[in-house]
Amino acid sequence: MFRRSEKSAAAEATAPVKEGGKGRPTPTRKEAEAASKERARTGMDKKAAQKVLREGRTESNRKMREGMKAGDEKYLPERDRGPVKRYVRNWVDSRITFTEFLLPMLIVIMVLSYAGGGDPDSVITKISSYLWTASILLLLVDVFYTRLRLHKALKAKFPDESLKGVTFYAFIRVLQIRPLRIPKPQVKIGQKFD
Question: In terms of C-beta density within 10 A (0-12 exposed, 13-18 middle, 19 or more buried), how is residue 159 classed?
Answer without folding.
Answer: exposed
